[in-house]
Amino acid sequence: MKNKLYALALCYLPIAVTTAKAQTFIAEGAWRGVFHQPNGTEVPFNFEVKGKTAAKAKVYLVNGPEHFATSGVSQKGDSLFIAFDQFDNELALQINDKKLSGVLRKKDLSGRAIPVEATFGENYRFVNNGEKPAGDISSKYDAVFKGRNGTDEKKVGIFKQEGIKLTATFLSITGDSRYLEGIVQGNKFYLSSFIGSGASYYTGTFDSSGKIIGTANGSSFTATKNPDAALPDPYKLTYLKEGYKTFDFTLPDADGNKVSLKDDKFKNKVVILTIGGTWCPNCIDEAGFVAPWYQRNKSRRVEVVGVQFERKADPVYVKNAMDNFKKRFNITYTEVFGGLADKKAVAESFPALNTFLSFPTIIFIDKKGNVDKIYTGFTGPATGTYYTQFIKEFNEEVDQLLKKDAI
After folding, report:
1. Phi and psi dihedrals of 282, rounded to 5?
2. Residue-wise over 221-240: b if at least 16 C-beta within 10 A, else e?
3. Mean pLDDT score of the chain, rounded to an integer?
4. Can you tell me the distance from the alpha carbon of 86 to that of 322, in angstroms, rounded to the nearest whole number?
5. Has residue 153 been placed in a domain?
6. Alpha carbon of 239 to those of 223, 235, 243, 365, 373: distances in Å?
7. For residue 89, which of 69, 68, 110, 118 has the smallest C-alpha distance?
8. CB of 115 closer than 8 Å to CB of 24
9. Closest by Cα among 260, 257, 157 to 211
10. Model pLDDT for residues 341-359, shown as the tens digit of each residue
11. Any idea what the CATH number is for the domain that residue 269 is in?
């Protein structure tokens, strides 16, 4: 079966389209999918279908407590397509009663297609072999990830175990790994996540001393239990170079209209500037917070500007990506196109910054146009108390800036 799936992937799954009669839509409810990675690893994921026809259906990817909405569903005969617009990806699947088989691929068919199959009515993630956990690994951890270039990256791991069920996330100076969900069996654990980009897969072993040895998407890591594990202060990583107080640019919006922070729209207002990209998972979490926050607070003389750095500079591509992003999160604040998604290019575009480390980065600007604080990365809802703390600090910073006198 696996060899057959790989063969289909190599030719981008030329799925048959039935035109003789309408094909029944897939079953409504819980589904379990499995990606067959090139190295032989099988990575499970879960999704839920709501609706009885493709025209009205909604598909949600399930990761722990999160139900992440896909971009849309379409059907042609016995071929089903589930879109992930923010990643330019789609699941192209052939319907066979209560089973699906096909690939995760780029919409333009570039790159490698990953074989996948799914079964209706299975709401577990990893197969439970009946082995009881050797311990409870719920805690915070100091983690060190080995990079492909030989450098180490320090992260904070947050594990929460209930019986055999396990959820986790890893925080770094650039953001977090979002919702990971899995299982503990003996002294081993397995975690996975999928929101439409590549599937994430973590596995490892633990001992009674609180040490973990694992792999994450092919890279090795070690982690040591430490309830006080912490990262560097995100407000001190990115800052203005000496001699700079203000931050400005002139960039086009999705329709080509030039936007500058010196425009009348922003005069004598607190401005929150976010630097990100529509393809970025942590930027997706950020927009999920900032968009409704702006709706509630825009009457307080606050403006938000999102600078999006995208994977392509083609104007049609950029407009489509930014328009889809706005629609998904009901964004009503200003968004502009910064250029290609490259950290070095961002740093060169904004010479006032000492460096650029992370998509996203948030810049807080007072009513006089002076930069007050810069927050590197984003700690999303999967981080629990870290996310709660971020929201508290975000609101306190805006309140403080609003109390300052204008020009």
Report:
1. -70, -30
2. bbbebeeebebeebeebbbb
3. 93
4. 9
5. yes
6. 30, 8, 12, 12, 8
7. 110
8. no
9. 157
10. 999 989 988 999 999 999 9
11. 3.40.30.10
